[in-house]
Amino acid sequence: MAQFLKGLIVKGGREEFFNYNYFNFSGLKGQTKVSRSGLHYYSSLVTLVLSSPNEDFLDYLLEQVFKTPKIELGNLIISPEYTEKESEPELEASNKFVCISPLVLLTPTFDDDSGKRFINPDTDEFSDLLYESTLTRMERSGWYSQEQMESFYKFQVVPDMNYVNKLKEQQKKFARIYSVYDMDVKYEVRGYTLPFTLYAAHEVQDFVFKCGLGAFTHKGFGMLDLANNSPSQRTEPYKFKREGFVPYKSRQQEQSRPKDEDEQE
């Protein structure tokens, strides 16, 4: 999915977005089943969630998506159908989030396995690594003054350890190894999928909600949603800023072609 979206960004021709990293997206959501041969989709509809504070970028990316009538992802063939926008929720000084894509804490270097290292969520290191990556990305964005950056010192991630311990008791995993490609180099990283509460300034909450949390967010990791929240109950029409383009909306849904089980991935 990351390679497909990157290809669309380049294909559209707007060079200011070729290396734009302040966006986030989920995996394809639908009725699935895991087998030895891969992930099988049994839904006629699948959903891709896109997020960015830059409406111009979202317009541009969605426009490229809808110019692609047939999308091939592995053995899965889908076509864009419609898109809608979620109303922005009211974020507080502390918010309980769920991960709708895995959190990655460490960015590995070439020929280095450190990205796979397991870090217990109930430690300061887990929270500190997320703090460092978030503040670094916020500073690089250029959207915040030095005074604002200095005021963002309050930051704490508190995982829901009851959830984690229940998974352990059921012998289920909340941390797995994932592959990610950067500059055509394959890396392996550890991703965590768990609910947590974030204590931070409103600007920080808004940034991670729209841009993702952790490393490789522009490659589909670290996407968040509020816990106990129903996105389907807070959608609204999405109007493109540029006149003359069909006003789709920003949570994108796509319809898949029914396939034989041995064709699906």
What features would you describe in this structure?
- There is one protein chain.
- This protein has 265 residues and is an alpha+beta fold.
- It is 25% helix and 29% strand.
- It is built from six helices and 15 strands.
- Strands 1, 4, 5, 6, 14 and 15 form a six-stranded antiparallel beta sheet that branches. A four-stranded antiparallel beta sheet has the order 9-12-7-13.
- Helix 1 crosses helix 2.
- Keywords: Antiviral defense, RNA-binding.
- This is CRISPR associated protein Cas6 C-terminal domain-containing protein.
- Residues 251-265 have a biased composition (Basic and acidic residues).
Task: Provide a short characterization of the protein structure.
By secondary structure, the chain is an alpha+beta fold. It has helices at 2-11, 55-66, 124-141, 146-151, 161-169, 202-211; strands at residues 24-25, 32-35, 38-41, 45-51, 71-73, 76-86, 94-99, 103-104, 155-159, 175-182, 185-192, 196-200, 224-226, 235-236, 251-256. The protein is built from six helices and 15 strands.
Q: Uncertain spans, ≥5 residues at pLDDT below 50? A: 247-265
Which class of the largest domain in CATH terms?
A: Alpha Beta
Output the helix-strand order. HEEEEHEEEEHHEHEEEHEEE
Helix content range of the residues, please? 10-25%
For the termini, the CA-CA separation is 13 Å
- Whole-number radius of gyration? 19 Å
The biggest beta sheet reads: 6 strands, antiparallel
Mean pLDDT: 86
Quickly give the CATH architecture of the largest domain.
2-Layer Sandwich
